[in-house]
Structures are given as C-alpha cells and as structure tokens.
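Long-time lurker, first post.

We've been arguing in lab meeting about whether zinc ion would sit comfortably in this protein at all. Half the group thinks yes, half thinks no, and nobody has a model to point at. So I'm putting the question to the forum: if I give you the sequence and the SMILES, can you give me back a predicted structure of the complex? Inputs are below. Any interpretation is welcome too.
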Amino acid sequence: MSAKKKAAAKKKVSKATAKKKVAVKKKTATKKKVVAKTKKRAPAKKATTKKRTVKKAPAHAGANGTLEFEPYKEKRGEEYMNERQEAHFRSILSAWKQELMEEVDRTMHHMRDDASNFPDPNDRATQESEFSLELRTRDRERKLIKKISQTIDRLDDHDYGWCDSCGVEVGIRRLEARPTATLCIDCKTIQEQKEKQMA
Ligand SMILES: [Zn+2]
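Top reply:
Settle the argument with this. Predicted structure of the protein with zinc ion, as tokens:
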C-alpha cells in the first residue's frame, strides 16, 4: 500500500477505532526476546511543549540479554500513538537496533580474530561450519536491523501502530511484545492460518 493511501486509511479508521480497545493476546509476548543495550536517549524534540519531568528509564538490556523497559502506562482517554507513546516505542526500537548492530560487530570481530589456519582438517571443518552458522546469524540480524529501521521511519511519519491490513490499532501491549508488528492480532492470526494451509 502506498504511504498516501495508508495515511488516508489510517485517518478513516482512527476516529472510529479511537475508543475501541484492541484485544492484545500474550501469545507472541514470550517468543520475542528483544535484546538491547543503549545509552540514555534524548526524547523526541516535539514533546517539549508539554514538559513534565517524567522519570522513566529508557529501554536497556537486562542481565539475561532481554530488552527491559517500563511497560507503557496509559492515562485515561489519552490518544492512541500520541507523542509520548511514539517516544516510548522509539526508545524501544532504537535500543533494539543498537544492540543488534553491536552484535553484528562482535560477530565480525570474532570471525576475523579466529580466522586462523588449523593444520588439522577436522578442526578446519569445524571452524568452517561455525563460520557459516555465524554468517547466517549475521544475515538474519542485518535483515532485522533493516526492518527496525523501516519501523522507525514509520514512527517518523506518524504511521506506526496501525494494522497494515485492516487499519485498526495494533495495540500497545502487542507492540511492546513485537515492536515491528505491522498487523493487528486478528489479521496476523488469519495470515498465519493461511500460511499453514499453504504449507
Ligand atoms: Zn488488522
């Protein structure tokens, strides 16, 4: 869908769904382990008009490598994807991206440092299979980084958090579990069922 069309669709549904609570299922929450480590991020510049000193720790990596952040607390009647919500998800996405980039860096250094010649063919074979595994991992990480960057672009366009398929709110809890989600839980479920039938 083009950006323009999407924006129009979003506008159309945003009012209708403003009050609609999107049911968020925890299903995917446990699957996604978001890894992140980051320095404190400056909040979005735009938010400075309503300045209030909200002490909130930005997203950061926990000891077990999972992304840690305060779950977003909604105020009653607040608008979906307002500046505060956007800043919340920007912090999560940036921290995640940062961690992945560091991870890619570490992998590259590790491979460079380990690229020694083993005289033993068995050792060499082991090293080669280790490297190919790491290359695949790195490739996956690169794709994920790209996806996160695209998601941050959508945030910049205020186009984040709406279902690409039906236009409803994806929902805060679902987005916290899957920050790059572009479908609401219902559309995602339908998509997965279709995929299962195809397989
Ligand atoms: Zn949907």
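For your lab meeting: Strands lie at 60-61, 67-68. The first helix runs from residue 3 to 17. Whichever side wins, do check it experimentally.
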